[in-house]
Amino acid sequence: MKYSKTLLTGIAAFLLPTLATAARPQLDPLLRPVAPKAAREWLTPQPPLHIYGNSYLVGFGGLNVGLIKTSEGLILIDGSVPQGVHRIEANLRALGFAIRDVKYILSTEPHFDHASGIGALARDSGAIVVAGKAAVPALQSGWPGSDDPQAGYRAHYHGVGTVRGVADGAVIRLGDVAVTAVATPGHTSGSTSWTWRSCEEGQCKTIVFSASLNPISADHYRFTDPAHRALLDGFRQSFAKMKALPCDILITAHPGQSDGDIKAAKLQAGVKPNPYLDAKACRDYAAQSEALFNKRIADEKAGKIK
Fold it and tell me: Could you say which of 1.10.20.10, 3.20.20.70, 3.30.40.10, 3.60.15.10 is the CATH number of the domain covering 32-301?
């Protein structure tokens, strides 16, 4: 059967845009970059690190992502930013794991730097996402809550989807590991730290992966505003709780908050004893954060905060 040149030209004109669209790589919405300038600073390359026993870090020089190996699969803590997802998954493979081995992803706080990669990681793994109850709406929507001191920054990311909210003291069990939620509000109302036991050569240690405890806010926010009393009280409760926690190893959401960058470098260099072992780490972290908070409150009362 013969077709006229005019008909063939018309068919080509109709099909070419469709074929071109099909051939063009489709942008994965869950991997849409966020805060590229800050992300470049945080996502400094770091090989996966064996911290102690069943516990690892699979994140970056400026953002920690925790990993716990259990007898029934893996638990991740935090997910960094979308630009870091492929590297996190590569770090898992470097340790001999696969993303589908991840059964739970625990969130410390619903800010983009720690949570905006969780959606893609949860999608790729099929894992259950768990967070403090007050953090659930922000994680699901990708928008900070109205009570968030940083809400004024309007830092949005693609929402995580289904999130299981838990209360202070809730225990997440997977195989031979139990991870306990420790509500540490202040930085956000739903900020949650996580703690578990890890054993190596017959020695068991308590590890704490802490949410941020620093009083960062958008312009014009006042912790001393009576409307923000809940967060002000939350900070003070969190400092006291962190000082009292059993804590042999501290990992903070940002390594630099607890000299984690220095500890990681020493660990990679083979320094002994393990540089992460420090029975004072949680108390020191709480005291340092409390000093920053007290200064912030004093500056607000003195009118030094714009």
Answer: 3.60.15.10
